[in-house]
Amino acid sequence: MIIFRLIGESFRFAFDALRQNKLRTMLSLLAITIGIFTIIAVFSAVDTFRNKLQASVDKLGSNTIYVQKWPWSFSDNYPWWKYMNRPQPSQRDFVALRERMENAQGITFEISTSDRTIKYRSSSVEGISIWAASQDFNKTWNFELQDGRYFTENESNNGSPVCILGADIADGLFNGEAPVGKQVQILGRRLTVVGIFKKEGEDMLGTSLDKNVNIPINFAKGVLDVQSDRYGPQITVRGTDKVSLEEVESELRGLMRSIHRLKPGEEDDFALNKTTIISNQLDSMFKMVNIAGWIIGGFSILVGGFSIANIMFVSVKERTNIIGIQKSLGAKNYFILLQFIFESITLCLMGGALGLILVYLGTVILDQVADVQVVLGLANINLGVWISVIIGTISGFWPAYSASRLDPVEAIRS
């Protein structure tokens, strides 16, 4: 009960100081407010940006491996010409993997080409991407259809002239008409629309299917050189849910080395790319951004700490006679010490609360004006509170200690 009374009195003293010296206190709290605002704003922006990037990465599949010519992350001492001399993943590799891979729930051979035009009667949409893939594309990629269906196995095997359109392409071409069953013109050929991808919206990595057209790889063979470097051929392997990514990667590496007839000790002539590579790079990048946020906000908090310490020294000076009376009535040193430390913490919490309110208002304004949803997470709110408590404790300790050591007779006389 004594502790609660002590905390209550500390709050009362803090609010009395604020009421009696509003301008002085607010100016002193300004640095704490700016510091908390800077740090929490930076961390909230980083968390929002990171979550969006991670959502884009997760769409690639956490248990998916991409067999490609080029790695997503380059080692420092690997000569570039070795990458140049690597072969592109081929359909022969794909067929061999499909026959021999045991821990895969889906394997596809894919190519892509961008900046193409699709037409329907007098309407056209430019700047689209065309993906040609084998039958298991619906097993290796996360997507939903809002209309129609996916390719049948016969359509994929026979290379039928069918396609699935992204939501933005369907809106641009058909203007409200039902797209399924209509014929569109792509790559100089006429294809029948059998399905429409569900609208996904823009993401940070450009993995949205909204402006994509998917066609069977066997149909693409008749109009494109599917082994050409410019179409980026790749093999996508999604492991089974019961098997770890490391096991899938180990099996896949062994099979690819066997298919390419690489001797023991020879370097791989292919890259096995996975989303953990991107996630690790994101961790490194955002770690540096967080450090920068701490440095920028740290200076403001440091200045704020000195300001709070200055207020507390002034407060001790103004209440010296009161401290003497308290000690003469039996107040212990620790009681005086805690009283001023709690007062310092209270002042810092007020400054931190103002900083958090400013961050929240900033998120609301960005959401309304720029349609950017910045998330002020509970972890960042807790961080702001704890920073305020720590700075308040450090800033208030020496003034509180000096107050607790005052001689009661000298204090009353002053």
UniProtKB/TrEMBL annotation:
* Record domain ABC3 transporter permease C-terminal: where: 295-408
Which keywords, in A-to-Z order, does the entry hold?
Cell membrane, Membrane, Transmembrane, Transmembrane helix
- One short Pfam family name for this protein? MacB_PCD
One MF term in GO for this entry?
Answer: transmembrane transporter activity
Top-level division of the source organism's lineage: Bacteria
Membrane-spanning residues where? 27-46, 291-313, 334-362, 374-398
Task: Name one cellular component (GO) term.
Answer: plasma membrane
Which residues are in the MacB-like periplasmic core domain?
25-254
Write out the annotated subcellular location.
Cell membrane
Topology of the protein relative to the lipid bilayer = Multi-pass membrane protein
**Cell membrane among keywords:** yes
Q: Family membership, please give it.
A: Belongs to the ABC-4 integral membrane protein family.
PANTHER family reported for this sequence: ABC TRANSPORTER PERMEASE YTRF (PTHR30572:SF4), MEMBRANE COMPONENT OF TRANSPORTER-RELATED (PTHR30572)
Provide the protein name: Putative ABC transport system permease protein
